[in-house]
């Protein structure tokens, strides 16, 4: 079955960077468009980025600061986050673009 395990979150100061990882298994990762989402405290989960084999798309508010990438040889998905802001504090999740399975998420906390 589909399994997604996020990691790499933590506490970082404003302006800092983090790289999140997502280990995927149970499906054909190479041919699957993958997504990143996040849920900030008290808010609905929101879409962050999609990444396919040769292109990626981002939420407008995050363009230029977040970069999604993937390693299809390792079934790994990544999210490089730079110039982090307190409003980026959230639990970050990966998911198949059209899937329904969520991982446990990884907490990112940006201190001001």
How would you describe the overall organization of this protein?
- The protein is an all-beta fold and 112 residues long.
- The chain contains no helices and ten strands.
- It has a six-stranded mixed β-sheet, with no helix packed on it. Strands 1-3-8-7 form a four-stranded antiparallel β-sheet, with no helix packed on it.
Keywords:
6-stranded mixed β-sheet, 4-stranded antiparallel β-sheet, 112 residues, mainly beta
Strand content: over 45%
Low-confidence stretches: none
Number of helices: 0
Read across the widest sheet, the strand sequence of neighbours is: 2-10-9-4-5-6
The class by helix and strand makeup works out as: mainly beta
pLDDT averaged over residues: 97
Percentage of residues assigned to helices: under 10%
From the spread of the alpha carbons, the general shape counts as: globular
Termini Cα gap:
40 Å
Beta strand count: 10
What can be said about the biggest beta sheet? Answer: 6 strands, mixed
Layout: helices, strands, pairs:
Elements lengths: L2 E5 L2 E4 L4 E8 L8 E6 L5 E7 L4 E3 L7 E6 L4 E6 L8 E7 L9 E6 L1
Parallel strand pairs: 2-10
Antiparallel strand pairs: 1-3, 3-8, 4-5, 4-9, 5-6, 7-8, 9-10
Give a nutshell description of this structure.
This protein is mainly beta.
